[in-house]
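User: Continuing from earlier, I have the next pair ready.

Assistant: Great, send them over.

User: Here they are, in order.

Assistant: Folding the first of the pair now:
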Amino acid sequence: MSPDNPPLGTPTPAAPAPATPADHPRRPLDRIVPLIHLLPSRRPPTGTGTSTTARDLSVRHRLLLALSALLTLSLFLSYEGVHGDANPLRTSSAPAVLSIDTALYALDQAQHDAGSAAPTSDFQKQISVAAQSLAAAAGDDVGGPAGRQALQTVAGLITVYAVKVQQAQLQPADSVLREAYLSYATSVLTDKGSGITARLTALRAQQRAAVRSQSAFGPLLWCGWTVTLLLAVALAAALLETQLFLRHRFRRRYNRGLLAAAALLVAWVVTALLFTVWTHRGMAHTRTVLDQRLTGPLITDAGRRTAAYLAHTGFRASAAVWILIGGILLMALAETGLRRHIDDYRFRPR
């Protein structure tokens, strides 16, 4: 019997079992390959097909332009709210108060000389000072058309007062006619209802009220400047976040356009804030000076002080146009800083 044909009943040997991985030593590459599948994939998530960089750039671009526009508008309105009244205060309201005070003081001095036995040069000088002061007040547009009409009436009454005093001084010392002329002149000057002093006092109160209104920093201005500063902080934070985003996404350390925009923002807002503080402080000091009763040398001193307090307010008021120019430059720099990256992603094939 051949070995190829074993006798019946002889058990057939089992086939060798297939080799398992444990039977062979694992190579280093076999251990690394499975771990690769556990790493995060750089591909976009399934179903999106595109990167979010273009959308992120677009959102930041619109945010920077919107905040820049809102800040420009808010800063301009808040700045004008303070500086818009500085020039009228310097050129009209404050000089008008001083002119009326000068006229009242001159008329008071003239009244002391009205009882002289003969016409005096001091009386004529005081009347001339009062008339010139009223003319200056009229040139300052005191109280509008109604105020100018009131000053014209007062100027006419001063002429009547001066004529009656001169007529009284031409009469004998104990003359009844002299007393009548003086009595009539005094009533023209001091009558509580329609006298010169009463009319000028009312005009002075009106002008002092205008000074207080022009130099006030009311709730509306506080609200405007609060919104302005909040917008400035928001824009600065947006510029910083955009700079960090570009640095992380594009590996660029600095973006010149955004850095220039940040520098302009700080200089722009700080300069406007300093100009506003200086102007308002000068206006507040002017109001304090003019709220006092001014007579004699105090009027001249008050004129010098108010001129010093309100110096350069015209220049600072004219700087409002630079706020608009600064806002345009700020938006242009933000646009320049992001435009190249936006265009790169806009025309990149998907």
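And the other member of the pair:
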Amino acid sequence: MNEIELGQLLLSLSVVFALTYALGYLLSKFRIPSILAALFVGIGLSYLPLFRSIHLVPAFESTYEFLADLGVLFLLFYIGLQIELREMKRSGPDIIWLTVLNTLFPFLFGTVAMLVYGYGWAVALVIGMTQMPTAEAVIVPILDEFKMIKTRIGTFIIGAGVLDDIIEVVMVGIVSVWIGAKTGESHGGVAGLFAGIIAFMLIVWLFYRWMPRVMKKWEPENLNTLMIFSLVVLFGFGGFGEYVELGMVVGAIMAGVIMRPMFVQEEQKGEILSQTTQTLSYGFFGVLFFFWVGFNTDIAGFLEEPLLAIVLFVAGTFGKLFGVLLMVPMKKMHLREALIVGVGLNARLTTEIIVSQLLYSAGIIDLKLFTALVAASSFTAITVPLLFSLLIRFWGEEVYHAK
């Protein structure tokens, strides 16, 4: 990147933050989380010629993408610092039920929709799987802005989101093996993915169990040292999560969970560092993450393949809501809780895009279906955060203290 390109990049960042600040101020007047301003700014700027060039200059695109990835890491690391594992364990059976229902029915609805549309069983089953994932990185920061991370709703969404990530890994593995069989290319297979998951879980357990005891003997001398050690854990688990194909989302959350006892142990230093992490996450990296999500949404895809995109959107959305609403007659959730959780878990634009790209690149699905899949996921990334925020605004006080 030369000096001119660097200058253009810095000026574009200045525009992004300026517009986010102005729009965020307006949204805050309506009690809509200001972090969503970056999402809307991204959507708007994606239509300007000046910003369209981001995708045409590899250095610009890779820089924005890297900063957005750091946004995911820091946002979910901070969320991990807020998680109470005891509360998670207490709600464990309910979270497992929620994960099963939240993934089963979108899968069934998506499969049936593809069969009705005339696609074969193999493609229909794989497309059904693409309706299962949840992009918790999009929805959890909004929970945090409403101070609902430690509520039942927060516990359900984060818990189901983490378990859902494991299902996503298996889904990618199945699709990779299938593509390998179709194209004759070799892949590691599902067994390798399961081995990576087990190794990751074992290392997380060892660090969570023994690190606070070890660090008592080598207590960080000052705030800077504790910050550096936190970054070692964050990047280490984020990278290891990516390496075993579990994803940096799970790695970042687990890094926060692991560091929480140390932050509590360090008291004042831990509290200051937690606030610093929050400021850095929401004031810088989080803005760039939401901007990049908005910038890469495919609204035009709805115009190209409107009917198929709507079918996929409806199948995934109603599948999520139907599955979560079954928790009400099971007496595991109240109705309004279920509606908020169901809407929140419907956020996509995550692993299903990777799967769609793999299928399209292998020639297993056509451009029409690929465009519709991306468009449907993009639409959830725009509508779900806004609807989720409005539901919490109107029902938040009522469900906040729900038992």
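Worth noting for the second one:
DSSP finds 18 helices and no strands in the chain. The CA atoms of residues 220 and 229 lie 8 Å apart.
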